Amino acid sequence: MEDGTFVTYLCAFCGSSNDTFVDPSGGATQSYTEDCSVCCHPNVLRVRIDMRSGDVSVESEVEG
After folding, report:
1. pLDDT tens readout for residues 13-34
2. Which of 3, 14, 30, 49 places its Cα 20 to 30 Å from the Cα of 24?
3. Which conformational region is residue 53 in: left (phi greater than 0), alpha (psi within -120 to 50 degrees), or beta?
4. Structurally, how many domains does the chain consist of?
5. Domain ranges, residue 48
6. Distance between CA atoms of 41 and 55, rounded to whole angstroms?
7. Distance CA 5, CA 24 (A)
């Protein structure tokens, strides 16, 4: 995952699958907002990267 990877998360509003690009240079824990590609509602994404294994987890929450 040196250069980054795409991961899938479920929209906190409509439940649709979305892909997002995670860049490890942002650190092991990241938080940013991304709009759902289906319903266009903003999702706050909480990203955790295990820097040893490269495993990535993403949780989405309603903004606000």
Report:
1. 999 999 999 999 999 999 999 9
2. 14
3. alpha
4. 1
5. 5-62
6. 27
7. 9
